[in-house]
Specification:
With about 325 residues, the chain is α/β, with parallel strands linked by helices. It has two domains: about 140 residues, Rossmann fold (3-Layer(aba) Sandwich), CATH 3.40.50; about 180 residues, Dihydrodipicolinate Reductase, domain 2. The strands form two sheets. The chain has a nine-stranded mixed beta sheet with strand order 14-13-12-11-7-10-9-8-15. Helix 4 runs parallel beside helix 5, helix 5 runs antiparallel to helix 10 and helix 8 crosses helix 10. About 50% of the residues are buried.
Length: about 325
């Protein structure tokens, strides 16, 4: 029989409701507990997943000897506290992005995870999306510098808690980290400089932290990644789009659904299409289960997790100062 990874879900909101299917469909997982400060939400997720119990007390989950790993899917202000407490209790940690709201939080998690030796991964799923994996494979044997562009746009609700700095960290820390990780993964080289130009574009008084920016990341091999992040876009436009240019070849990915690549595999153009976006979450959950069950590397361990988190803090700093900010490994290996 295959080894099971018994999971406690902490945070039973929209994300847990939308993604528990990836736990249920994976034979490696068994959901044992659902926890939320809102007991009704916990009860609902327990019902859907067949968990043995639901609770509002995360401590019960951390000290349940029958739980191997926790999925931390709460709002951003509790990620550090729960990650540290889970690691100290010997539970493997899958924490949704962001890793933490600041560098001190990243450091606390890194220390707790290293001391306990548990597996730790952050939910940067984009880099594992099949079309992104294909792009990486296509470029694997190229030594050309890359120009990479990724757009993420939507009409982000002003009243969403992500816009409350102390709860959500704002758009760049709270969601942009996904894209900063994606650019690093596609570049395949270490980031050396972060520059961002942007500000608060929403007209709502509820938004008190920059919500739109053009961000440029320069990499050690000379590659350049650029992302346009807009929270004041249109629901009528596909949310994300990726373009990569290297060595007179090109790769275009539309919302993780349609991909065309030009000049690879001996063909002028190749198309690939899915019925719906695949942003890599199912693969990400599977790789985390395998890391716990078989001792392999988790999909987005400490260094990757902190790298994109630190870039996100630098984006806010660069928007505020108008200056580019140098970055090196010592900035994100805590
Ligand atoms: N990877 C992705 O593409 C993706 C997409 C959406 C959301 N997310 C992430 O998922 C996480 C949850 O987002 P969401 O959209 O489900 O938010 P949400 O507000 O819908 O749900 C959060 C839940 O956490 C609970 N909660 C808040 N503080 C808590 C605490 N201290 N202890 C226990 N429970 C607590 C709330 O009651 C709520 O039920 C966030 O980290 C978010 O960034 C990731």
């Amino acid at each position: 029989m295959e080894k099971k990874v018994n999971v406690g879900i902490i945070g039973c909101g929209a994300f847990a409701a939308n993604t528990n299917k990836f736990l249920l469909s994976n034979p490696l997982y068994s959901v044992r507990a659902a926890c939320d400060v809102n007991l009704n939400a916990a009860e609902q997720i327990a019902g859907v997943t067949g968990a043995a119990y639901y609770t509002a007390d995360a401590e019960k989950v951390f000290y349940d000897p029958d739980i191997d790993a926790v999925f931390i899917t709460t709002r951003h202000d509790s990620h550090v506290d729960y990650s540290v407490r889970a690691a100290k209790a010997g539970k493997h940690v899958f924490c949704e992005k962001p890793m933490a709201l600041d560098r001190a939080g990243c450091r606390k998690i890194a220390e707790a995870v290293r001391q306990s030796g548990v597996k730790y991964s952050v939910g940067y799923n984009r880099g594992l999306a099949p079309m992104i994996a294909k792009a990486k494979a296509l470029m694997a044997s190229q030594d050309d510098k890359k120009m990479i562009y990724h757009r993420i746009q939507d009409p982000f609700p002003a009243a969403h808690w992500t816009n409350i700095p102390e709860v959500g960290g704002g758009r760049f820390v709270g969601e942009g980290c996904h894209i900063f990780d994606l650019l690093c993964q596609l570049a395949g080289s270490a980031p050396v400089r972060v520059y961002a130009s942007g500000g608060i574009f929403s007209k709502s008084e509820l938004v008190k932290i920059p919500d739109c920016a053009a961000v440029t990341i320069t990499f050690a091999d000379g590659s350049v990644g650029m992302t346009l992040i807009s929270g004041t876009g249109s629901a009528g436009v596909p949310k994300e789009s990726t373009e990569i240019y290297a060595g007179c070849k090109a790769i275009m990915i539309e919302n993780f659904t349609r991909m065309s690549y030009f000049g690879y595999e001996g063909r002028e153009r190749t198309n690939w299409e899915f019925d719906a976006p695949d942003k890599g979450m199912e693969i990400e959950f599977d790789l985390f289960a395998k890391s716990v069950a078989y001792g392999t590397e988790p999909p987005n361990g400490l260094a990757n997790a902190a790298r994109a988190a630190v870039i996100s803090y630098m984006v806010n700093e660069s928007v505020a100062s108008g200056e580019p900010i140098p970055i090196c490994e010592a900035d994100y290996v805590f």
